[in-house]
């Protein structure tokens, strides 16, 4: 099973994998500068994080949430069935909620997501351990993997 970031899947850029790598590197530079007190980098990072959450075709992260209800909400958007993946592992990533809290960034509209971004794709440091097929309107979920 291949789980990739929206920017890798979107076809937005002819070299989608390179584009995603560049986006991650740019965000990490902004974060590093913001962590050192650069207010312009902090403002740029705040804007960029909000932008990435609203325009998926440029988002270089596999978007994860720590909350089942958030994942289920995305999976069943439009009253259609979908899938919720339980992912485990330790590896590189961006705890977007923690970054917002640390830098007192605006995120009121998206704070409930408790979002963690995994750069580009699930790699060897992360594994899909369970996949649930979920449905809307309170119907039970079904484990489809393993």
What would you say this structure looks like, in words?
The chain is an alpha+beta fold. The chain has helices spanning 6-9, 16-35, 39-54, 68-75, 96-102; strands at 61-65, 82-89, 94-95, 115-119, 126-134, 142-145. It has one domain (6-145). The chain contains five helices and six strands, in the order H-H-H-E-H-E-E-H-E-E-E. The strands form two sheets. Strands 1-4-3 form a three-stranded antiparallel β-sheet. Strands 2-5-6 form a three-stranded antiparallel β-sheet. Helix 2 (16-35) packs antiparallel against helix 3.
What's the gist of this structure?
The protein has helices spanning 6-9, 16-35, 39-54, 68-75, 96-102; strands spanning 61-65, 82-89, 94-95, 115-119, 126-134, 142-145. The protein is α+β, with helices and mostly antiparallel strands and 146 residues long.
The number of distinct structural domains comes to 1
Strand order within the widest sheet? Answer: 1-4-3
Describe the largest sheet: 3 strands, antiparallel
Structural class: alpha+beta
- What is the overall number of helices? 5
Shape: globular
How many E strands?
6
Fraction of residues in β-strands: 15-25%
């Amino acid at each position: 099973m291949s789980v990739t970031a929206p920017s890798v899947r979107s076809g937005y850029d002819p070299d989608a994998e390179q584009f995603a790598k560049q986006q991650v590197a740019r965000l990490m530079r902004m974060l590093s500068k913001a962590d050192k007190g650069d207010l312009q980098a902090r403002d740029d990072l705040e804007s960029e994080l909000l932008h990435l959450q609203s325009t998926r075709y440029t988002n270089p992260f596999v978007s994860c949430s720590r909350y089942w209800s958030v994942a289920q909400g995305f999976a069943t958007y439009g009253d259609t069935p979908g899938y919720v993946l339980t992912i485990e592992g330790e590896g590189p990533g961006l705890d977007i909620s923690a970054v917002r809290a640390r830098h007192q960034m605006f995120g009121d509209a998206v704070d409930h997501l408790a979002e963690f971004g995994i750069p580009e794709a699930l790699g060897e440091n992360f594994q899909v351990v369970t996949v649930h097929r979920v449905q809307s309107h309170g119907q039970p979920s079904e484990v489809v993997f393993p």
